[in-house]
Amino acid sequence: MVHHHQRCLVNKPYQDLAAVHEVSIMMSILDLAIEEARKNSAERIQRISLEVGERSGVVIDALEFAFEIVIKNSIAEGASLVIHSIPYKGECIACGFQFHCDGFLICSKCGNFGKIISGQELRIVSIEVE
Ligand SMILES: [Zn+2]
């Protein structure tokens, strides 16, 4: 696993090292997708759809780039990747107001603290196979 991903980096000197995180995430996602495809006796994966929160710590561009690398020579080669971005939202612990966060979890209505209700997810929504 790790060996494969290091080899990709060496072969592609133009790649930003910041993408290493996304490459390892994408490899895990692809592993899961292949496992699911096999369970369903599918021969090819055509499309993988993900939900990626604004605060998941993942850079979407890097994830898309990583996808193109990891699908090579797999049953997902040529597949498309669909990413749904999920907004980073909080809910005020005092008044219950739901708001979009810009880094601070502070209610834009009453100024109290909020708790995170979305934006940290990173999950597979669907895998289309044939
Ligand atoms: Zn509030």
Report on this model:
The chain is of the alpha+beta class and 130 residues long. It has one domain (2-88, 117-129): 2-Layer Sandwich (hypothetical protein PF0899 fold), CATH 3.30.2320. 32% of the residues lie in helices and 28% in strands. The protein is built from three helices and six strands, in the order H-H-E-H-E-E-E-E-E. Strands 2-1-6 form a three-stranded mixed beta sheet, with helices on one face. Strand 1 (45-53), helix 3 (60-70) and strand 2 (80-86) form a beta-alpha-beta unit. Helix 2 crosses helix 3 (60-70). The two termini are 26 Å apart. It binds zinc ion. Zinc ion binds at residues 92, 94-95, 97, 107, 109-110, 112.
Topology:
Layout: H1 2-11, H2 20-39, E1 45-53, H3 60-70, E2 80-86, E3 89-92, E4 98-100, E5 114-118, E6 122-129
Parallel strand pairs: 1-2
Antiparallel strand pairs: 1-6, 3-4, 3-5
Zinc ion (ZN) binds at residues 92, 94-95, 97, 107, 109-110, 112.
Short description:
The chain has helices at 2-11, 20-39, 60-70; strands at 45-53, 80-86, 89-92, 98-100, 114-118, 122-129.
Indicate the CATH architecture.
2-Layer Sandwich
Outline type: elongated
How much is the radius of gyration in Å? 18 Å
What profile does the largest beta sheet have? 3 strands, mixed
% residues in beta strands:
25-35%
Which oligomeric form is depicted?
A: single chain
Q: Which hetero compounds are present in the coordinates?
A: zinc ion
Question: Looking at CATH, which topology would you report?
Answer: hypothetical protein PF0899 fold
Number of domains: 1
Please, how many helices? 3
Mean pLDDT: 87
